[in-house]
Amino acid sequence: MYSNRDPSLRKSGAGNIFIKNLDKGIDQKALHDTFSAFGNILSCKLATDSSGQSKGYGFVQFDNEESAQKAIEKLNGMLLNDKQVYVGPFVRKQERDTSTSKTKFNNVYVKNLSELTTDEDLNKTFGEFGPITSAVVMRDADGKSKGFGFINFENADDAARAVESLNGKKFDDKEWFVGKAQKKSEREAELKHRFEQTMKEAADKFQGANLYVKNLDDSISDEKLKELFSQYGTITSCKVR
Fold it and tell me: Has this prediction a pTM greater than 0.70?
């Protein structure tokens, strides 16, 4: 780990960013060299396992917010070693906890489920965090799992703990996404904001380019996606995969 010797600068948290989905071939020096183009780096750390193998994420702290913001704007969503990386502000755990506690919810959404996962499996796994009133894996007309489900807790604090503990965990070699189950109006508002942000970033980076949009809600169709993006210009093709 590269680190500036002045602890007061590092502890301030200013200019701190988080990078994930890194190719395993990117080592700490490569990470430092990539981000040093945007400003003076106070510390640079690549997360590794006990054997020294990269875990695919890391942290970089600049000596000012402007450098951090430039790095985020230029590198977020770009390809490094043929992998699209996420670059964003680092949020400390206590701040994430505070943010989560402000939004109370009882209904939890989980996706990327194995085809073998049953209602009973969800009931058992999520039930460890508190009493639940329902746990359902969504299925098609033939009874085949759609890969996502919903769990309703009696207590909002239990729901929040389940999200904090289970999001990103692997079950049957599938990494779960676990979060608040949003109402349709909330999903559409979030999608609209995300699309507008994507278009703004694309306008700065590209002219007449293909756009890749990820983490779409399962209810989004080709037509809905085209409708949301058409307000920004002429679309030649649009496909949800």
Answer: no
